[in-house]
Amino acid sequence: MHTTQSETQLHGLRLLPGANIRRLMARLDMTLQDVVGATGLDERTLRSMLQGSTRPHARTLHKLAHGLGVATDELFQDPFGNGQAAFDRATNPLVADVIDSHPEMFDDWHSTDYEELFSRMGVGGELTEEGTLSAAIAMNARRELQYQVSVILETGEADLLREFVGMLFRRVTEVG
What we know:
By secondary structure, the chain is mostly helical. Helix 1 crosses helix 3 (43-51). The protein is built from nine helices and no strands.
């Protein structure tokens, strides 16, 4: 039987959550029973996800990510593609010190947020403490703005926001 490229890609998508669950279990030092307890998911569901034999619903993925304290996107990352992140951490060691000394600035951050911060470079090389704090403040401000926009988009003011954003976009992208 011939397997099409889309079937192969679909199978790969089924395997990603399982590989990432195993990666997260190792990182968080969790057993399968720990994951069941933290997420409230059925053990059979988790076993199926680990084996890649099921395509989990979005609700299930959200519940899993929430229980593990990660962004849902982290369940679909290439579990073997962390070489760049390790390089970024090794070349920006001061960032970890800033995170440790200012934990209040990093509430509700996910691994993707930390990866973005570690990947930033200052003028001439690694970030300084001031540069790290400035980048974290800017990232938190952007996250808050995105949250506010998402709330407004669920209200009767959504059309007004769309018009305003469209006007601003045209203003900053006009040539000449």
